[in-house]
Amino acid sequence: MNEILLVALGDVGDQVLGAIENRLWQVFDHQVRCLPCLSAPAYAYDAKRQQYGAVEILRRTLASAPPETHRLLAVTEADLFIPMLSFVFGQAQLNGTAAVVSLARLRQEFYGLTPHGLLLLERAGKEAVHEIGHTYGLLHCPDPGCPMSLSNTLRQVDHKGEDLCMNCSIMVEELTKQKRTMRGAEGIR
Q1: What is the dihedral angle through the alpha carbons of 157, 23, 12, 59, rounded to the nearest 10 degrees?
Q2: Residue 189 lies in a domain
Q3: Residues 76, 70: contact at Cβ < 8 Å?
Q4: According to the 3-state scheme, what is the secondary structure of the chain?
Q5: Can 131 be counted among the known catalytic residues?
Q6: Backbone dihedral region of 182: left (phi > 0), alpha (psi from -120 to 50 degrees) or beta?
Q7: Count of Cβ atoms closer than 10 Å to residue 84 Cβ
Q8: Does the residue 81 lie in any domain?
Q9: Is 97 among the domain residues?
Q10: Count of domains observed in the chain
Q11: Of 107, 81, 78, 88, residue with least CA distance to 9
């Protein structure tokens, strides 16, 4: 079944999870199911950077996933990094199973600004689509309005639309068909 599992790592709020669940369902047309909340990712904390390692979070979250998981998105308040970048809004296994999105730098208050709940929900939805898109094998899109475009700043996140561009949508459909065909062929053997 092409189900997307959603799991909070610590307290991220039902409203945020609901917005992400809705956006993923609308874009990918797969059932989205929330798993019970897991603890905040203290295991991935890097004291020197004062951030959390995205790769370790992916590894641990995937290890706790139910068998036969198709796609899994973890959502956390932790500020994420990967070794080659000072921060990331999220990280995913390209053409894999797991992805993670951080809400930390999507929040206005991270930058000393007044909180804006609706803007946070919109940003979280876009970044969730972006990271799950990578699990389908999508690379960064050259269309700056597509959620699959690269975002190094909030301005870039805010410029994105909420739905995949036509090219990325077609690619997801094709990749999904290919995987179904491959699974069917494996069953014949």
Answers
A1: -80
A2: no
A3: no
A4: CCCEEEEEECCCCHHHHHHHHHHHHHHHCCCEEECCCECCCHHHEECCCCEEEHHHHHHHHHHCCCCCCCEEEEEECCCEEECCEEEECEEECCCCCEEEEECHHHCHHHHCCCCCHHHHHHHHHHHHHHHHHHHCCCCCCCCCCCCCCCCCCHHHHHHCCCCCCHHHHHHHHHHHHHHHHHHHHHHHC
A5: yes
A6: alpha
A7: 6
A8: yes
A9: yes
A10: 1
A11: 78
Q: Is residue 160 part of a domain?
A: yes
Which one of the listed residues 21, 127, 131, 173 is annotated catalytic?
Answer: 131
What pTM, to 2 d.p., does this model score? Answer: 0.92
CA angle (152, 153, 154) in 5-degree steps: 140
Per-residue pLDDT tens for 130-181? 999 999 999 999 999 999 999 999 999 999 999 999 999 999 988 877 766 6
Do 173 and 189 contact (CB within 8 A), yes or no? no
Which of 150, 144, 122, 136 has its CA nearest to residue 94? Answer: 136
Per-residue pLDDT tens over the stretch 35-62: 999 999 999 999 999 999 999 999 999 9
Residue 132 is part of which domain span?
Answer: 4-183
- 60's CB contacts (< 8 A; 6+ apart) are 41, 43, 44
Q: What is the CATH number of the domain that holds 10?
A: 3.40.390.10
